[in-house]
Amino acid sequence: MMSKAIFSLPLPDNRKIKLTNEILQMLFSFAQDHKNSPESGGILIGRVLDCNSHIVVDHASRPMETDVQTRFSFIRKAAGHQEFFNQIWESSGGRCFYLGEWHTHPEKDPTPSTIDKREWRKLLNKTIQGQNRLFFIIVGTTELVVWYGQRQASKNTFLRIGSYCRNEIQN
Ligand SMILES: [Zn+2]
After folding, report:
1. Is residue 122 in some structural domain?
2. 85-127, pLDDT tens digit by residue?
3. Where does the record place the JAB domain (predicted)?
4. Which of 4, 8, 30, 133 is most buried, by CB atoms within 10 Å?
C-alpha cells in the first residue's frame, strides 16, 4: 500500500509547511549522487488548509526539455513549468498556488550559493500571485533543506526552517 506519510516543519508564525512522502521521494530522485548527474530543479505548488492555515506542498514540477542543466547550474525556463502550473491551478479550481522553487546540489548538506540567494531575492521581489513569502528547497545527496524567504522593505531574509534525511523517506 502507498504510504501517505506527511512530514511537517514549523514556520516562525506557528503555522507549518507539510511535504508528502511522495513529493520528498520525487525530489530525492533527482539527487546528484553520481559524478555525472546534472543539476535539476522546478517549481513548488501547494495550498493553504482552510482549517488551520498550514501550507501543503502538493506538486513540484520536474526539469523540462527547455531548461539548461549542467553539473553545477540549472537554468529554469518558463515553458513547461508554466503549463504544469496552469493545469494544476485549473484542476484544483484555483486553490493551488505558486509556493517557490527547488533545485539540487552535489553536496550532502546543501547551502545556498551567492547566485542562489540573488535568484531567490529576485523571485521575492517579483511578488508572483501577490506573495511576499516563498519557500526554497535545495536537494543535497543525503539531506533536503527548506528555507523560508520573506520580502521585506530593507532586505529580503531567508530562514532555514529544517531538513529531511534521505534515509527517513520511505520508498
Ligand atoms: Zn544552488
Report:
1. yes
2. 999 999 999 899 999 999 999 999 999 999 999 999 999 988 7
3. 34-141
4. 30
CATH code for the domain in which residue 153 is found: 3.40.140.10
Residue 148 resides in a domain:
yes
Report the percentage of the chain scoring pLDDT > 70: 96
Ligand 1 center–CA 116 separation, angstroms: 5
- pLDDT band, residue 153 (cuts 50/70/90): confident
96-117: burial string, b at 16+ Cβ within 10 Å, e else: bbbbbbbbbbbeeebebeeebe
CA of residue 1 to ligand 1 center, whole Å? 35
How many A from CA of 30 to the centre of ligand 1? 14
Active site residues: 39
Pairing state of beta strands 143-150 and 97-104?
unpaired
Total domains present in the chain: 1
Q: How far is the CA of 106 from the centre of ligand 1 (A)?
A: 9
What is the average pLDDT value for the chain, to the nearest integer? 91
